[in-house]
Design brief:
Blueprint lengths: L2 H6 L4 H4 L7 E3 L2 E4 L9 H11 L5 E5 L12 E5 L4 E6 L2 E6 L10 H10 L5 E5 L5 H9 L5 E6 L2 H13 L6 E5 L15 E4 L9 H7 L5 E9 L6 H10 L5 E13 L2 E10 L1
Parallel strand pairs: 2-3, 7-8, 7-10, 8-9, 10-11
Antiparallel strand pairs: 1-2, 3-4, 5-6, 11-13, 12-13
Helix pairs in contact: 4-5
The chain binds S-adenosylmethionine (SAM).
The site of S-adenosylmethionine has 22 residues, from helix 5 and strand 8.
Length: 274
Amino acid sequence: MNIRDILKEKLTEEELSHLRTSFDIVGDIAIIEIPEEIQSRKKEIAKAILKVHKNVHNVCMKTGAREGEFRLRGVELIAGETTLTTHMESGCKILVDVAKAYFSVRESTERLRIAEMVKPKETVMVLFAGVGPYAIVIGKKRPDIGKIYALEINPDAVRLMEDNVRINRLQTKVFPVLGDARKDCKPYYGKCNRVIMPLPHTAHKFLDVAFHLLKKKGGTIHLYHIEDEGDVSTEVMDKMKEFSGKRKYEISEKRKVLPYSPGSYKFCIDVRVF
Ligand SMILES: C[S@@+](CC[C@H](N)C(=O)[O-])C[C@H]1O[C@@H](n2cnc3c(N)ncnc32)[C@H](O)[C@@H]1O
């Protein structure tokens, strides 16, 4: 039986027409969108999800879009007991509290792709690191890595990242840093081979920091940005020109990561700096 079959007996046809049956599962938490028209039936909907998905023990209803500096989404726990869970990704355990820190299961392929690009002994900086999924996946997949610094401004996310480093036994590889990418990166200037910038609405405004973080001999920046298909947006190109100083750079790739809104996508823009 699927969720719709179970709910056929509880909801009217009109109510069923509003039902959405696709949702993300983070660890043992289903995160669902319930349209206003049927929010009064949220408990029945949650029960149906628990019945069909035996690996799900908690259900959260989205109560708003992601917003604010921490990119948090409002969620209401409508079944189960907790918003804290352990998600498995690429053989890594990622502890996450979906109410207190950003985490998206949809970016796992992208994280793996970046991990595959990292070279032995590199020093990597992940800005906007969240609970640490990029740093953890790179650390696990590339045991020959040098160091990974992972800087994040949300203290709850950093606490979870510290747990994730321990759980995945990466204490000698991954170093979480609680701080602001604009104010707290100076100690790492000139030390990195690679900078990862997964904050797609505003990361380009921090490109000056990324250029400073790279070693004198150069390196790679992975900038995430929401834009249209085609050439890299002038918004990004202008910032790159403004912030690169005397350094030479080239865009080596612009790659679609995920759809964002009709006509726009989250892209990863790879920049080689010399
Ligand atoms: C889109 S989330 C990505 C999190 C993580 N990299 C992931 O893939 O799950 C962006 C993160 O950047 C953090 N952030 C926002 N502004 C920041 C800043 N100025 N300095 C450091 N972190 C920041 C937010 O708290 C949030 O956790």
